[in-house]
Amino acid sequence: MRFTRMAAIVPILIAPYAATADIKRLKAVPEAFWGEWIVAGQSCTKSDQPPLSITASAYTHADARCTIDWVGETAGRAGSIYSAHMRCSTGEQPQPSIANLILVSEENGMVSLGSDFKSLQSYQRCPAE
Question: What are the C-alpha distances in Å from 43 to residues 48, 51, 111?
Fold first, then answer.
C-alpha cells in the first residue's frame, strides 16, 4: 500500500522538471540566411533548377512564392535551429497554403533547408551578381 502511494506521488514531483524546448519568436529570417541558394555541389549559373531566394520576409523557389509570417528559433546542439512559418502560393492554387521551412547553419557558409528534419538538404550560397 505504501509503495502505491509513492508510485502515485513521484510523477507529480518530477513533472515540473520535465524538459521543455524554449522557442523564441522572431518577426523575420535572420540575415545570415538572406540570399540565393543552390543545392550543394551544383552551379548557380548552370543548374537545371533556378536558385531559391530567402529574404527577411519571403522565400521563393521554382514551385512557389511564400510570405513568411514568423520564425521560431530553438537552441540546438551546434547552434540555433530556425523554423519559418509561411503562406505559400503557386500558379495553380488560388488560396495560399501553410508551409514550414527549417533553416540550420552549417560550416563553411552552407545551410541545411527542408520542410522537416528528414528532408533537410545542404545548400551553398550563390555569389551576388
Answer: 9, 9, 16
Nearest residue to 122 (alpha-carbon basis) of 20, 15, 37, 23: 37
- Each domain of the chain, given as residue ranges in start order, spans 21-125
Structural contact between residues 83 and 102, judged by C-beta atoms closer than 8 angstroms: yes
Over residues 14-39, the pLDDT tens digits come to 555 455 568 899 999 999 999 999 99
- What cell does 88 get? 505559400
Cα 112 to Cα 123: distance, rounded to the nearest angstrom: 6
The SS3 of residue 86 is strand
pLDDT digits (tens, 9 = 90+) for 31-66: 999 999 999 999 888 777 789 999 999 999 988 999
User: Bridge partners of 109?
Assistant: none
